[in-house]
Amino acid sequence: MNAPRNSPSPSTSSYQNAPTRSVSVHGENFAYRELGPEDGVPLILLVHLAGVLDNWDPRVVDGLAARRRVIAFDNRGVGGSSGSTPDTIEAMARDAVLFIRALGFDQVDLLGLSMGGFVAQVVAAEEPRLVRKVILAGTGPAGGPGIDKVPALTIQATLKGTLTRQDPKLSLFFTDTAGGRQAGRALLERLKERTHDRDKDISLPAFRAQLKAIKRWGRQAPSDLSEIRQPVLVANGENDRMVPSPNTLDLAARLPRSELVPLYPDAGHGGIFQYHEEFVTRALGFLES
Questions:
Q1: Nearest by Cα to 218 from 118, 144, 123, 115
Q2: The domain containing residue 180 runs over which residues?
Q3: pLDDT at 43 over 60
Q4: Residue 76 within any structural domain of the chain
Q5: Is 137 helix (H, G, I), strand (E, B) or coil?
Q6: Ranges for the AB hydrolase-1 domain (predicted)?
Q7: Quick one: DSSP state of residue 227?
Q8: Which of 65, 117, 137, 271 fits 237 for a cystine, CB–CB 3.0-4.6 Å?
Q9: Domain tally for the chain?
Q10: Which residues partner with 137 through β-bridges?
């Protein structure tokens, strides 16, 4: 069900029951969910590889939406959005900007996780007046070490997950320790809390396009991040297998106005989900400062 844009404010809802809406962007429908107060600069969520609306940790979204207007969306060709999925990060960034403008916003904050963090970097660099502040989690700069290996790692984990009937997120997003496994299982339970109007899983062609985009990003010449003048908060787990954690430190060092959250202990790519309470507190403090 797509609620019209002018329907009652979603401010009282939680992410679990936020209505799925859609907005037309150059003839394609982009699916999104919105919640939190109506005033203030909106926070746009840019999701990870293969992620759809239902892959955001509801604790993170609800925690942020307690004080901020939060909008999650499916990029072109993903989940409930129509069209064909771009195979470059730069084209995904252009789509994100078109989506933001279609909703009528002239200034936003961005939270980019993993691949979404690549997209956020491009949007922040290319649209300095549109983007006020940025949060980058589990991500790295173009050409960062190990990023071009993400597609192979993901396919391997997906095949292994199929054979062992285990969600590949457990091995890709969390450490293989008692604490990491427990945090991973807890996230998987939270992701099932929404039982109605769930998003469609990513299609195989869209997944392939994203894998191609990530490989290209990983093989690009390292980007000059000094042109990103906005304040940026950088976070990750200390043991990220997907986008190796040294990329996080490199990002923070290269961005002129960065704040680095101390790397979360015994955590990996999904560090902001594992430490959702600490992350939300730090993110809100950063956005409001």
A1: 144
A2: 15-288
A3: yes
A4: yes
A5: strand
A6: 42-273
A7: G
A8: 271
A9: 1
A10: 113, 235
> Within 10 Å of residue 9's Cβ, how many Cβ atoms?
12
- In whole angstroms, what is the distance from residue 236 CA to residue 248 CA? 7
- 223 vs 216: CA distance, rounded Å: 13
Tell me how far apart the alpha carbons of residues 200 and 76 are, in angstroms, rounded to a whole number.
Answer: 13
Q: Where are the beta strands (DSSP E) in the chain?
A: 20-25, 28-35, 43-46, 70-73, 108-113, 131-137, 232-235, 258-260
Q: Please report, as a single letter, which amino acid is at residue 160.
A: K
- Looking at the domain assignment, is residue 129 inside a domain? yes
Res. 288: pLDDT tops 50: yes
Residues 48-99 have pLDDT tens digits of: 999 999 999 999 999 999 999 999 999 999 999 999 999 999 999 999 999 9
- Give yes or no for a contact between 244 and 269, defined as CB atoms under 8 angstroms apart: no
In angstroms, the CA 218 to CA 88 distance is 11
Cα–Cα nearest to 43, from 114, 116, 94, 92:
116
Other residues' Cβ atoms within 10 Å of the Cβ of residue 198: 14
In a domain, 2, yes or no: no
Q: What pTM, to 2 d.p., does this model score?
A: 0.95
In whole angstroms, give the CA distance from residue 279 to residue 276: 5
Residue pair 96/59 in contact (Cβ under 8 Å)? The answer is no
What does the pLDDT look like over 112-144, one tens digit per residue?
999 999 999 999 999 999 999 999 999 999 999
- CA 284 from centre of chain: 16
Distance CA 243, CA 240 (A): 6
Q: Would you say 248 and 235 are in contact if contact means Cβ atoms under 8 Å apart?
A: yes
Angle at alpha carbon of residue 280, lines to 246 and 214, rounded to 5°: 40
Q: How many residues can be counted in the chain?
A: 289
Write the CB contacts of 76 (distance below 8 Å, at least 6 apart in sequence). 25, 28, 30, 82, 83, 84, 85, 86, 92, 95
- Assign residue 222 the CATH number of its domain: 3.40.50.1820
